[in-house]
Amino acid sequence: MTEALRQAAVVPVSDGQVCMVTSSSGKRWIVPKGMIDPGHTAGEAALIEAWEEAGLVGVLRPEPAGSYVYQKYGRTHHVIVFVMEVAEALADWPERTIRRREWVHPDTAADRVDELSLKLIIESLFKTETADVA
Hints:
Blueprint: E1 5-14, E2 17-22, E3 29-30, E4 33-35, H1 42-54, E5 56-60, E6 66-72, E7 75-89, E8 101-104, H2 106-112, H3 116-133
Helix pairs in contact: 2-3
């Protein structure tokens, strides 16, 4: 059996909003995600993806928000998901010519993602925060 490919994703948050980007094809809305390169931790990979795909700089919450598995190109991908408190959203970033960036309400973010497990992670992040206020 082939070993799963390891990836890291980041749910960028600021002022109760989630930053989403378009996939490289421009057909779907996603959160920044990519391979964990040799020599990098999952957290480092998440920060790199947030910068490259969305032009975002910030700080990850100490623990991952969750993980999920999906199939693509006949391979299993295991994704560790982090939450990043965004400090800065820059106007110029590496993939700005192939991706659009949009800040949306958490419910909209959850509705836009295709992967059910990621949808549930996003929903759980904000359900606990709003439940604490009630």
